Amino acid sequence: MSRNVNLQDQEDEICVLSSIYTKEEFESKDDYSGGQFYAFVTLPHDFVITYKNYGEGNESVKVPLSHLPPITLTFKYPANYPSEEKPEYQISCLWLSITKLNKVCEKLDKLWEENRGTVILYIWTQFLKEDLLEYLGMSNNLDLCRQYSSELRRKGVFSIKQKRNANQNLDTINNQQTPRQTTSFERKESIKDLSTSNKELHINRYFVNKDSRIITVPLVDTHLHKYLISFNEDKSRTEFLRTLYTCDICYEDKLGEKCIQFKPCNHVYCKQCLQQYFEVRISEGQVNSMPCPQSKCKSEAQQHQIKETVGSKLYLKYDNLLLNATLDTMVDITYCPRSFCGCPVMRDTGEKMATCPKCEYVFCVHCKMTYHGVEKCRLKAEKIIAIMDEYEQGDEQTKFRLEKIYGKKEILSYINIAKSENWIKTNSKLCPNCKAAIEKMDGCNKMACTKCKIFFCWICLSILDPEKPYRHFDDTQSACFNQLFQGVDIEDNPDMPPFMNFAWDAEDDDFFFDDMPMTEEDLAIIFNVVPNLLLL
């Protein structure tokens, strides 16, 4: 095949790869003599990385990932490619060991042998993206335990067993000598000296022949698993911003840059809907949690998401409310009762006195008044009601706590007084003249107060004419017209005489019955005025 044909194939291959892959994945030289391919490996949904946490009992930690840093394949065309030779290439990958990269080089060479004489880069790139993990036997798990241990050894940090033995030797030496403060550098050097003197602490190192086409890029100031986790977060964020999502509230399609995603549920909502959602919760004081709006979802909004959505001014209000709500849950925190202060005050458990650090006001933590020593607390009505409700609805432990603070006798006294006042309020009415509490047992609605002696209507509480009190019930313009016995159960009263059809002259209040003789006893039974008035 002529040189011109090879050049044409090379240019065509570059053009095809440029049209298939994004600029983030593929770069070519201006003269079409080579380029670089960044293979972002396609990961299964259950892919995890595994590493050992040497600070927590040598336990294995699994972290799910959606993205890994790309495998970099740098290539250069020889003059007789693709007719005779394969492209010259170099490969590098942070998360693959030298052994696995050697296998990758062998596979790329094998693919060339199987497809000799044709363009090969697309086959290589697809293998790196789609089939690499399965080929290396790591389809859903990347085990970094050995690589992590190697990193620690290179940095002078031993395994847990080695470090424990070395520390025991150090403790023995330190106990025999005068203690002195040592730097972390000196301690590491001491461990290193002890380890070299103990044959059991010898570290075996395995050397592998590295293919010359493998480029190693060491990490600086971080461990591999931390770098992979950080890369995954950044890549996921970038991918989210570029993707179109349907808001689960308004059902409109919007780009990720205008949306917020909850973790770990991955529910997505547009910022406009979430802004209204957050504002309502903040205005109602529901700041202890900002859950995902999805029903029964337990995911929580992150602080930076809330601030980004509602703005700095409202976020400051939210932050203050959250702080106060958190302080309210702390049993050793109270607040200065002065209206112009309100500063949080730390108090000692079991101590009744507290001192505000801001205004220096000394107060009782129970009644919030000036500290009164052994004197009983003078409580406001609202506080008494709250104490009674808590006492009556509380369990034995709650009752014991309240009795210890306020006294059992005092609490029972509050309850009895409250019940008496409630009974009076429910079963009596106030005299419209002297405001005395009046109870009506039965009888008509013309009442006489035994304290100030005035007549009044039980229905509307109007003061009646002392000379003609019944005119109020005979006046057609009155709201109580013909209501003298309103509410009186006549049929069930055995003492009520059978002659109830009567009338009276509104001018002189003389009663006229249908030729029925009336005695003073009958009148007393009908009107029963005096026995039916009770002054409390």
From TrEMBL:
Record bears the keyword Zinc-finger:
yes
Q: Supply the PROSITE patterns for this chain.
A: RWD, TRIAD, ZF_RING_1, ZF_RING_2
Q: Which residues form the RING-type domain?
A: 243-484, 247-296
Q: What is its EC number?
A: 2.3.2.31
What pathway does the annotation place this protein in?
Protein modification; protein ubiquitination
GO function terms (MF aspect): ubiquitin protein ligase activity; zinc ion binding
GO terms under biological process: protein ubiquitination
Q: Which domain of life is it from?
A: Eukaryota
The alphabetical list of record keywords is: Metal-binding, Repeat, Transferase, Ubl conjugation pathway, Zinc, Zinc-finger
Q: Which residues form the RWD domain?
A: 12-135
* Catalyses which reaction(s): [E2 ubiquitin-conjugating enzyme]-S-ubiquitinyl-L-cysteine + [acceptor protein]-L-lysine = [E2 ubiquitin-conjugating enzyme]-L-cysteine + [acceptor protein]-N(6)-ubiquitinyl-L-lysine
InterPro entries the UniProt entry points to: E3_UB_ligase_RBR, IBR_dom, Rcat_RBR_RNF14, RNF14_RING-HC_Zfn, RWD_dom, TRIAD_supradom, UBQ-conjugating_enzyme/RWD, Znf_RING
Looking at the Swiss-Prot or TrEMBL record, what is one Pfam family this protein matches?
RWD
Which family does this protein fall into? Belongs to the RBR family. RNF14 subfamily.
Identify this protein by name: RBR-type E3 ubiquitin transferase
Native organism is Cimex lectularius (Bed bug)
